[in-house]
Design brief:
It is built from nine helices and 19 strands. It is an alpha+beta fold. The chain has two domains: about 240 residues, Aminopeptidase (3-Layer(aba) Sandwich), CATH 3.40.630.10; about 70 residues, OB fold (Dihydrolipoamide Acetyltransferase, E2P), CATH 2.40.50. The strands form three sheets. Strands 3, 4, 5, 6, 7, 8, 9, 10, 11, 12, 14, 17 and 19 form a 13-stranded mixed beta sheet that branches. β8, α5 and β9 form a beta-alpha-beta unit. α2 packs across α7. It is globular, with a radius of gyration of 26 Å. It binds zinc ion (ZN). The site of zinc ion (ZN) has 6 residues, from loops.
């Protein structure tokens, strides 16, 4: 009797197990495919090393721009995932005084668990190590590195450094985010910049959540323009001021990149796919017409109407004040910190809503005006070398 009861208990257990299997079978369509059948991520070969799947490694890139016996390597953090996917690259401190990016790269890379990553993420926290150590935007020869990409093997020191980064790191990327800040006592609202007339870039730029998107082809020689020209969709992420680490701006930058990683299916995180950004196809700088002490009346991100008072400039000697008036309506995407300015100083960067058709027309005019030049060495003079960049007005305001 006892024995029969035991058999019937065993039968009940078998029946229950069978039902459980049936229930699991009903939901089988929602279960990820068996990992044995899924494609396997390959080791990632870069910088002369091989990074195994599901690992994060610190590698080194040594551009040949110093004495061979005295070359200083720069750290490159490489996270290779568990499953195949795109390679996302993050670069920072191409301008040596723009520090927020190095902290963004650190947080994004070291918060990743490569076991949950599809594809790879490559971070270069400090590209322009010489400028960084000297606390300046420029290279030791006063050139702006971000005017020399994709570089030249036999060009100037800047062109060689650019060439080395481009060949050894950037060509491994499927997407690129180059992180910058405002330049020269200016600050930028966290924003994405890219050539929105390129559909791949437009698609990529839309992945960064609520950060405003600004259409800008990028000057010749910028890393993002060279990467885009090489078929790698690239954007610039601008956030905050130079020479500072700003926690809020860093967090906004990290959040924007993590949002993009989720929407690109590189890394699973909760992200609101419906979060959309305002797109600005045009932007202009408003300059001050008088010298003196500039005090702003607006905040970053503020919407201003045409005729709005953006700030005042007061002559410290005569006590005469001049108002800075918005010539058009738009959003304050970048602005000068309160400071002493000279007439002509670009103080407020206003994003203007317009159409992509307008942007394309503007670009067509730009292309017809700009003489074609070697993208590795823009504005080459008779010596075959680009002039020192610190005198370039347009460059200082572009902040990239
Ligand atoms: Zn910059």
């Amino acid at each position: 009797m006892k024995c029969r009861r035991r058999i019937s208990a065993a039968r009940r257990l078998a029946a229950a197990t069978a039902i459980l299997w049936l229930i699991q079978g009903a939901f089988a369509a929602d279960v990820p495919p068996d990992t044995d059948a899924a494609p396997v991520q390959q080791p990632l070969a870069i910088l002369g090393k091989t990074v195994a799947p599901m690992t994060t490694e610190l590698l080194y890139w040594t551009p040949g721009v110093a004495f061979d016996g005295n070359s200083i390597p720069r750290g490159v953090i490489v996270a290779n995932g568990a499953n195949p996917g795109p390679v996302l690259c993050l670069t920072a401190v191409v301008h040596g005084d723009e520090h927020n990016g190095l902290e963004i790269v650190r947080r994004v890379l070291y918060e990743l668990d490569p076991a949950h990553l599809s594809g790879a993420v490559i971070g270069v926290p400090i590209v322009n190590l010489d400028g960084f150590r000297r606390g300046t935007r420029y290279l030791p020869d006063r050139r702006d590195l971000n005017r020399f990409f994709p570089g030249k093997q036999n060009g100037s020191a800047a062109a060689r450094l650019a060439h080395s980064l481009f060949e050894e790191v950037i060509r491994s990327c499927d997407y690129l985010v180059d992180i910058h800040t405002g330049s020269f006592h200016r600050t930028n609202l966290p924003q994405v910049r890219g050539d929105l007339t390129n559909l791949d870039v437009l698609e990529f730029a839309r992945r960064f959540g609520g950060a405003p998107i600004l259409h800008n082809r990028g000057e010749v020689g910028t890393l993002r323009r060279a990467a885009t020209d090489a078929g790698i969709p690239a954007i610039t992420l601008e956030t905050g001021e130079p020479l500072r680490i700003q926690d809020r701006e860093v967090r906004q930058g990290v959040r924007a990149i993590e949002h993009a990683m989720t929407l690109l299916s590189i890394y699973p995180r909760a992200a609101d796919a419906s979060e959309t950004a305002q797109v600005y196809f045009e932007s202009r700088w408003v300059r001050v017409n008088a010298g003196g002490v500039l005090m702003s009346n607006v905040r970053l991100g503020e919407l201003v109407g045409q005729g709005a008072r953006l700030g005042t400039v007061t002559d410290p000697v005569t006590n005469h004040s001049t108002e800075v008036i918005a010539p058009y309506a738009g959003r304050v995407l970048g602005m000068a910190l309160d400071q002493v300015v000279l007439p002509g100083y670009a103080a407020f960067h206003i994003g203007i809503e317009s159409s992509i058709e307008g942007a394309k027309a503007t670009d067509a005019i730009e292309r017809s005006i700009l003489a074609p030049s070697d993208p590795g060495d823009p504005a080459v003079d008779a010596t075959g070398d680009a002039p020192a960049a610190e005198s370039s007005d347009a460059e200082m305001e572009s902040s990239e």
